[in-house]
Amino acid sequence: MKKINIIRLILTAIILTATGSIVNSTFAKIEAPNYDFSLQKLEPFTPNNTLASIEKTLGKGELIEDAGDIKIIRFMITHARYNFPVYIQVKKNIVLDFYARFPTYFLHDLFHQSLINKFGKQTKYHRQENDAVYIWENVQGMRIIYSGACTVTCFPNYVSYMKISEKKGDYVPLLQKFSDQFIGKFPK
User: Fold this and answer.
1) What is the pTM of this model?
2) Do the beta carbons of residue 17 and residue 73 sit within 8 Å?
3) For residue 181, what pLDDT band results from cuts at 50, 70 and 90?
4) N or C: which end of the chain has fewer CB within 10 A?
């Protein structure tokens, strides 16, 4: 009986050692597919860039609204197998702000960390139920607003970079325009 237990222990040790060496020998980096999105894809849309430079790299966008000097244009960004919209608002062909809505397979933790790596820790944070809003005030002449949500996993909702205007009321940011469309005008 003692010999059988010793043989079992030896076999178990051999199996565990062999399994461990097989797993360790692969040196596989486990990384979920489709999560390698970089903030560099959003660089062309940064405020103060020109519409001409965006169209030179990405082609023409779709005109959504034309109010004379101020226009809203939608561009489609391709990442992996998915397309998602980026809306820009331009005045005299200079980008004022942009709003990007992401696919839900993006990971909040990775996206939020990439924003922190680029702009530092956010200056404001607000959480309501499963949604959170992160705000970076006056970073490189911009205000950055990012929203993420959690259900089974956490994912980004949107990000918006806005040019900080010298004159109050110079323009209405896209984020506010889109919010007004869905929830109605905010009281002053």
Assistant:
1) 0.75
2) no
3) low
4) C
Residues 6+ apart with CB under 8 A from 23: none
Selection from 182, 177, 159 nearest residue 85 by Cα: 159
Q: State the average pLDDT for the chain.
A: 82
pLDDT at 144: 93
For residue 13, give the amino acid letter: A
C-alpha atoms less than 13 angstroms from C-alpha of 66 in its C-beta half-sphere = 3
- CA dist 49 and 98 (Å) reads 11
In Å, what is the CA distance from 26 to each residue of 13, 21, 22, 36? 20, 9, 7, 22
Helices (H), the chain: 2-26, 51-58, 108-119, 174-183
**CA–CA gap between residue 137 and residue 126 (Å, rounded):** 14
